[in-house]
Amino acid sequence: GSIDQATVNATVQAALDAGVNFFDGAEAYGKDNQAEKALGEAIRVSGKREEVIITSKFGKHLPLWETDDPQGAQVSYDAAMITQALDASLAAQLTWLLSVLPVGPP
After folding, report:
1. What is the secondary structure of 79-103 as a DSSP string?
2. Which of 43, 49, 97, 106 is deepest in the core (most CB within 10 A)?
3. What is Dmax (Cα atoms) for the chain?
4. pLDDT at residue 16 in the model
């Protein structure tokens, strides 16, 4: 990503120290779940996983500049796609639990 892991770790630790306990991610934040991976690593390093609430969002689509469809080219939200998105977020964030997993707007 464009921010090194040490900076992410320090930022998350500062947030935790200030009393922040809610972190929101999404598969669309960065290529290949990179933002969720950075967040997961920072929370792991903090040792405070049991004290935080982590959410993620799913819902892939093509950006409007890559399609002629004004709504974007959305994928089907079937059980297999949702399971794949959940598994990817759990793995990326190095956790076994997400508190919320809403469909993100395409």
Report:
1. HHHHHHHHHHHHHHTT-S--SB-PB
2. 43
3. 46
4. 97
Tokens of residue 7, six digits: 């900076």
Positions of the chain with pLDDT under 50: 106
CA–CA dist 97, 29 (Å, integer)? 19
In whole angstroms, give the CA distance from residue 25 to residue 104.
10
Contact between 13 and 42 under an 8 Å Cβ cutoff? The reply is: yes
φ, ψ of residue 74 to 5 degrees: the values are: -85, 155
